[in-house]
Amino acid sequence: MPLESNEPLDREDAPFLASGQRPSSPVEEESGPSDAEKEHLRKTRLRLMLTLFAMILAVEVGICMSNGPVTRIYESIACREYYAQYDPTKIGADGEVQEELCKVKAVQQDLAAVKGYMEFFDGILSAVLAIPYGLLADRRGRKSTICLSIPGFALNCIIQLVVMWRPDVFPLRTVWASSLAWLFGGGPVVAFAIIWTMMSDVSTEEERFGVASMGADFASSAASSWLMALDPWLPLLLGWGLAVVGMFFALSLPETMRVGSSQPTWKQPSMEMSQVSPGHAEYKEVPSKEQEHEVLSDEETLQGEEASFTTKAARPTFFASAKQRSRAYFAPYSFIFRNKQIMLLLTAFLVYRLSRGSSWFLVQYISTRYKWTLAEANFLMSFKPALTIPLFLFILPAISRQLLKTMKPTQKDLQLMRISIGLLAVGTLGIGLSPSVAMLIPSLLVQTSGSGFVFLTRALITTLVNREETARLFTIIEVLQSVGNVIASLSITTVFQIGLELGGAWIGLAWMMTATAFTLVGVAIWMFRIPSRTGVSPFFPTPRPSLSFPQWVLRIFLFCVRLPFFIPVCIGYFLLFQWLPITSLGRKAALWCILGVPSIWWVDLQVDGVRKGTLNNDRHQNRLPGPGSIIASSFTSPIDALYLAAVFDPIFVSCYPSTREVEQLSVWQAILRAFALPQAKPQPKARTVDLKTIMRKYPGRPIALFPECTTTNGQGVLPLSPVLASAPHKTKIFPVALRYEPKDVVTPVPGSYITFLWSLLGRPTHYIKVRIGQAVVGVAADELPTHDATMFDPSASENGYSHDRDDERPFSETSVMVLEEQVPNYVGDSLARLGRARRVAVTAPQKLEFVKLWKKSYWTW
């Protein structure tokens, strides 16, 4: 039984935290929570934040405290095995070997292999299990998925403890079996991915938690070093116990998602985390970028839709089903592969994680090269997080404030990224080349100064995607980092062993290789360019290309030749011809003459469910607007009204964002609306009626309206007028999207008459792409079909009607049936899909504010 919710949870691309129920139509107002609910929300949010903070702190401190002791115990076991074979006299009465004797090449190579392959097995399991457990968290709940990690953490610790406690029974390499424990819950990657996603949804202070974690790392490393001097088992047991106890805090987490509920979301007594999140009331839902490009090409769409209508009863083959499932599985992540900037920054994450693999052996490197004990080396490393705290609290914020005086935030982040990666490369190279601790410490300082790189990169890459895509982006980042861990565990381990074999200065070979990788990342970051505009600006004029001298001459010539023909033809039609008692065919022919003067002849018409070249078939005529139907068109140019009149001969009406009534317009008035300021409501003297009255008055003609209520540049679809929800019962509403090539004939800024005429008459030709969507029919709730058409149509997911779409509704072959109050939302989604645009939350009244600001800086003519 499907969930009664506008946002199905059974989707790969659903966020970790379910979003709150949203109004099903733009006219349905949201009811705010009561005071008691607000207080409960505040307490729930506080409880969640404290629990997550305690989990992060406990696990981070526990893992950090146990790293040094684990290395020392591994070294002790490998050392004892080595001397038992080659020189048993070095083994003391207590069965141990002095630590300074364990710095020989063979022991250190064995230790590096054990640690390196441990990271390899951990990383490969985490990478494989990250997405499946992420989907499980989406479908079964966050709390239950995190709780699965508890036995995984406990079993991992127990296996290692047994092997380390009884090395006479189990070989040291048996500790690799502990990686199998991550089959329960997916390991730290899954646990921390869910924790940080929940944290980011309820708090905007992630950096403070990070600084607190760094301070805890410093304290735990220092304490661990002191306890290691007494007995390495003390900090080991204390650290692992603390980490496991921290995971048990997951049992007290509030569940953030309801699965299988039969009640609508807004009726549930438990709190939605979208309400717990700060600023939730300001959030407006817009389609993601993959919805913008959900159909890779119009021809593929049409062919797929034709196939869906002719093969509904056919059972899909195994390979076809596998193909459809794989496409549906990866479709939510397709937005990443279409953006070169995102791909470049993700590569930086991968290489950064690969390069950071050398830090696993840094304590061992210091101990081996400079003849320090592991406790002393671990104590030196404890100062690294202590140095990071002032970097994040004071240094980076101070530099950011200075840069923000002359740069935009994204440019500031990019500049800091470039500086950070340079410091990482120089510092890491210094670590590998340092002949003494006196040179090592400054190199560590320089490297630590660049540790903000990964956080700056995450901040910059987040600006390149929509808010609803952020969780998926973070999942990909975690998977890439896991893959980087896998590669690093093999490559760094091998290179470190080679360095140990060569001896001398070559012991730092792994850090020399790491510095080279950082340098390659730095080159890529220096080549990175911030896109000129990462968001959607639906009211900005389309930039006009620069012209060469011959192009200017051609433009001026065409404009001067066409203008004397264009003006008389327009005057003749709108002042005289349209009032003559002629047929619809005669009016259409006259309008095509007007379109012909600027050479608007090339029209690419495609209709949902119709293969190219078969539109003349009689069985497809019901897919086109006709008498008694409504045309809901995009609105970008005066040509919109002219083209619709020349093809469909409709009755034009104007609609408004604040009322369900309309005002009848002539074709000329509809054209002029493309140059006019948006109107939030009808003029006092306007003669407004409802749609039913207009349709009864003109039963033999379609009704055309522009539901966005004002023009845009075609990049975004504004919230639609509520008038669509008042259409007569079971009236077909056809979404129609018009796009132009070149795009400079759009008029998003009011009053641009001369600019439009210059672009229209100066170009050699113009090209129109017309996309007509499947008709939308509003019905009552009891009239909706009880079955889901996609259950019988395996190819429906290829046609834009898959389970991945929030606006999915049962549909017939020629129309989609939705609740009447949901018609505006569905039509808006269809216009966005057909026009390759995105839905935006800005409205027509907000355009008035934009126009005021625009005219202060630019001339409009």
Overview of the molecule:
The chain is α/β, with parallel strands linked by helices and 861 residues long. It is built from 27 helices and 12 strands. The chain has 3 domains: 199 residues, Up-down Bundle (Growth Hormone, Chain: A); 198 residues, MFS general substrate transporter like domains (Growth Hormone, Chain: A), CATH 1.20.1250.20; 281 residues, no CATH class. Strands 1, 2, 3, 4, 5, 6, 8, 9, 10 and 11 form a 10-stranded mixed beta sheet that branches. It has a two-stranded parallel ribbon with strand order 7-12. Helix 1 packs antiparallel against helix 4, helix 2 packs antiparallel against helix 3 and helix 15 packs antiparallel against helix 19. The longest helix is centred in the first third of the chain and has 52 residues. The N terminus is likely disordered.
